[in-house]
Amino acid sequence: MKKPAFIVALDGPSGAGKSTLARELARRLDFLWIDTGAIYRCFGLAVLRAHGGVGAQRENILNLLSKLNICFQQEGSRIFLNEEDVTQAIRRPEVSLLTSELSAWPEVRAALLEYQRALALAAPRGVILDGRDIGTVVFPEADLKFFITAIPRERARRRQEELAAQGIFKTFDEVFLEQDKRDLADSQRKLAPLKQAEDALLVDTSDQSFQQVVDGLELEISHYWKDSSGRGF
Ligand code: DC
Which candidate, 81, 85, 57, places its Cα nearest to that of 70? Predict the structure, then answer.
């Protein structure tokens, strides 16, 4: 498999801050950023709209995979599904829950795996992918892997804040319970469960500011990037 100049895998549970970190790191390093959760979410949204959930015939749901036309714009921060900007729509709680369920389906993972690889392989310089199984399944040979986490209460607090910023108001307990449900589904599914790759560096962001974490990761990536066969800045 051909790989781009430099691959950074950022895995971890929801609310750990992966996407915000990945976006800022990609901006600083001039790498491509691929939010793989957003890709799964687009499929979740498409299923929700077409079938209202997973109650429909499995075959009809899977047929939607071949009709997905996903495109990232504005350095990965806006996502389009069949030419519609769905950046906000894919963050809605009902999409989160359905996506978590669908992402355990082998056919879904197989199709979206190829899609993620193809996007990353097109990167001219380097790429940062954030998700659940980047370092274990999508790119087990990634140049650098991080497992980003934070204590569950802190993740739920951030998630509640993030939802409020989008005009979605939920109690802390509601957010915490939903997160718990997703954590369980993500880490216990048979295929590509959320888990730290053996060679991933563990980063606990619970007690660190965003600035501290992003500065630390930038240093780490720059260090390895410089060391990797003269491909440095
Ligand atoms: O990171 P996120 O919360 O946006 O991810 C949405 C869902 O997609 C989440 O339930 C886990 C799933 N997902 C996955 O299974 N594999 C990935 N590489 C990324 C996300």
Answer: 81
Q: How far apart are CA 202 and CA 204, in angstroms?
A: 7
Cβ-contact 32, 127 below 8 angstroms: yes
The C-alpha atoms of residue 126 and residue 26 are separated, in whole angstroms, by 9
Query: Any idea how long the chain is?
Result: 233
Tokens 């895998």 correspond to: 9
Q: CB–CB of 171/2 below 8 Å?
A: no
Q: What is the mean pLDDT of residues 179-199?
A: 89
Distance between Cα 132 and ligand 1 center (Å)? 6
The dihedrals phi and psi of 84, each to the nearest 5 degrees, come to: -100, 135
Instruction: Ligand 1 pocket test: pick from 19, 23, 103 the residue with the most ligand atoms within 8 Å of its Cβ.
Output: 103
Regarding pTM above 0.85, the answer is yes
Judge residue 101's burial from the number of C-beta atoms within 10 Å of its C-beta, 0-12 exposed, 13-18 middle, 19 or more buried: middle
The pairing of strands 144-149 and 201-204 is parallel
| pLDDT of 6 over the 80 cut | yes
Query: pLDDT per residue over 80-95, tens digit each?
Result: 999 999 999 999 889 9
Question: Pick from 109, 38, 184: which is nearest to 46 by CA?
Answer: 38
Angle, helices 93-102 vs 172-188, to 10°: value is 10
The token pair that represents 181 in the structure block? 């449900």
Atom number in ligand 1 closest to CA 138: 18
Listed residue (151, 165, 162, 164) closest to 208, CA to CA: 151
CB 92 within 8 A of CB 168: yes
